[in-house]
Design brief:
The chain is of the alpha/beta class. It has 11 helices and 8 strands. Helix 3 links the parallel strand 2 and strand 3 (76-81). Helix 8 (185-195) packs parallel to helix 9. It binds zinc ion (ZN).
């Protein structure tokens, strides 16, 4: 890999990570977390989802979070939308980026979003056209791209076909998500070999959960395939709504440590993320699952003279 080769991490801890915490996290803590992440060098963060607070109580303070976001040049915030109502809230919000979610499994789509994948595509098509007309960034995540908690194995043909549809729709970015953390690296390589030639210039982002300890290996496989944008959560905070007790997204510090060690360059400071992951254990009252923030620094810090 060339030394000038760069990567981008999208920090999803404030949304994907905190959403599955068993106890409600207050707005001040969320904003303190986001401020630390921005100070650490993150330029893109998924911060809220526009969902019914009765279904996702952790996101009930989305308006307060948005009002308190640190405004810095070059920093963009993402809001997640699952339906037209959420989309309208996002369009009326100051967030720079909107991301919606389709699912590569009908049962999961029904349970998570109350509709079929085909209906979701119709709905997303309307959102995408409206966002395009308003010149707003609009991305789509294909959830359960590597496996479904209800149907099991997901046929890669289906994922490839969905990618093609969203490429044809001209969305701003496509993300493939291993929502329940079941993928293995060979599966990632095989799917990317089919997906990447179809992108037609549309950026691709990968979203892995470390539920079965294959998350970082999957990031490695995707990096070798040429992917340079990854979702990660500081401390690996999070869980999986379909796997009680499971760990969360791949840890930002773990992904950073590996990609930087491979000679790739990003904007985020590893020591600052380690510090933030350790800080987060206070307000959440639990140990973070990511590994690098638990280990001693390497290379060792220079001893003071
Ligand atoms: Zn996720």
């Amino acid at each position: 890999m060339a030394m000038q080769d760069t990567f981008e991490l999208v920090e999803v801890g404030p949304r994907d990570g905190l959403q599955s915490q068993p106890t409600l996290v207050d707005t001040a803590t969320k904003l303190a977390f986001i401020e630390r992440l921005v100070d650490a060098g993150h330029t893109r963060l998924e911060v809220v989802s526009f969902v019914n607070p009765k279904r996702v109580p952790q996101m009930a303070d989305a308006d307060e979070v948005m009002a308190g976001l640190p405004q810095r040049p070059g920093v963009n915030y993402i809001g997640l939308v699952l339906n037209q109502k959420g989309f309208e809230r996002a369009m009326a919000s100051p967030l720079q980026q909107i991301n919606s979610v389709d699912v590569a499994s009908d049962t999961f789509c029904q349970r998570n979003q109350g509709t079929t994948s085909a209906a979701m595509f119709e709905s997303i098509s309307l959102m995408a056209r409206e966002a395009q007309a308003a010149k707003r960034f609009f991305g789509v995540t294909i959830a359960a791209s590597f496996g479904c908690p209800f149907e099991g194995v997901v046929n890669p043909d289906r994922v490839v076909e969905m990618v093609q549809r969203y490429v044809d729709l001209g969305v701003s970015e496509i993300a493939l998500a291993d929502t329940i953390g079941v993928a293995v690296p060979s599966q990632v390589s095989a799917l990317l070999a089919r997906v990447m030639p179809r992108l037609n210039g549309i950026p691709l982002r990968l979203h892995f959960h470390n539920t079965r300890n294959t998350g970082i290996a999957n990031v490695y496989a995707a990096a070798l395939a040429g992917v340079r944008v990854f979702d990660a959560s500081c401390g690996g905070v999070g869980g999986c709504p379909f796997a009680p007790g499971a760990t969360g997204n791949v840890g930002t510090e773990d992904v950073l440590y590996m990609l930087q060690g491979m000679g790739l360059h990003g904007t985020v400071s590893l020591p600052a993320i380690i510090e933030t992951a350790r800080w987060l254990e206070g307000p959440l009252g639990s140990r973070m699952p990511a590994m690098v923030s638990r280990a001693s620094p390497f290379p060792p810090l220079a001893a003071s003279a």
